[in-house]
Design brief:
The protein has about 210 residues and is mainly alpha-helical. The chain contains twelve helices and no strands. Helix content is about 75%, strand content about 0%.
Length: about 210
């Protein structure tokens, strides 16, 4: 899959050859990327913009991410922290102080998901250890993903039309937002209160 995505023009030709099944296959790829946290998401999002255009590519990315997120959520609810530790070491899980104050958890996750470059895969797995409901989580993560996804799909769409200067500008802005996102994540995650009544719940469930 990654070899195919490394050549966006080849990926677009493959999608066009598949007809409407190409869109279905891409949604499956995006869902797989969410489930298998080791697969990077950015190449998929750029390829989506290249093959489907910015608007359709963004919708397909968000649909696939929602399906993958629901699978991960159910998997973690069923198997607990053991499911998270398949992809992330225990110290990474324990470092997420944002889960120690569930009164601020939803707002914090939403802000973090607005920025590219933040550890969305880790948070997607660990949210299943919290008390958040699935529908609420899919709404927060789905809306929150839009800015970071759309920058990638717009860049991919620009590349497909040969607008290389505009694509470079988009990716430059994305890179700057990544740096800002890392700072925002550190600020929000560092604000988790050690004395909160929900301290340790995310790490102890399962």
């Amino acid at each position: 899959m990654l070899n195919l995505l490394n050549d966006p023009s080849q990926f677009r030709a493959w999608v066009q050859k598949q007809g409407w099944w190409g869109g279905v296959a891409f949604v499956g790829m995006m869902a797989l990327q969410i489930v298998v946290a080791a697969i990077p998401g950015e190449p998929l999002e750029i390829a989506a913009g290249y093959a489907f255009g910015a608007a359709e590519g963004t919708l397909l990315c968000l649909l696939g991410a929602a399906i993958g997120g629901a699978i991960v959520f159910g998997f973690v609810r069923r198997y607990g922290s053991r499911a998270v530790e398949v992809f992330f070491p225990r110290e990474k899980i324990d470092s997420l102080r944002i889960f120690r104050d569930e009164r601020r958890l939803e707002a914090g996750l939403f802000v973090i998901f607005l920025f590219p470059g933040t550890p969305k895969d880790l948070l997607t797995y660990c949210v299943g250890l919290s008390h958040m409901r699935l529908g609420r989580w899919l709404l927060i993560s789905g809306v929150g993903r839009i800015p970071s996804v759309i920058t990638s799909t717009i860049g991919g769409d620009a590349l497909s039309m040969g607008h290389y200067g505009f694509a470079a500008a988009v990716f430059g802005v994305t890179l700057a937002l990544c740096g800002l996102g890392i700072l925002v994540y550190r600020r929000i995650n560092g604000a988790g209160r050690k004395g909160s009544g929900s301290d340790g719940k995310a790490a102890d469930r399962g």
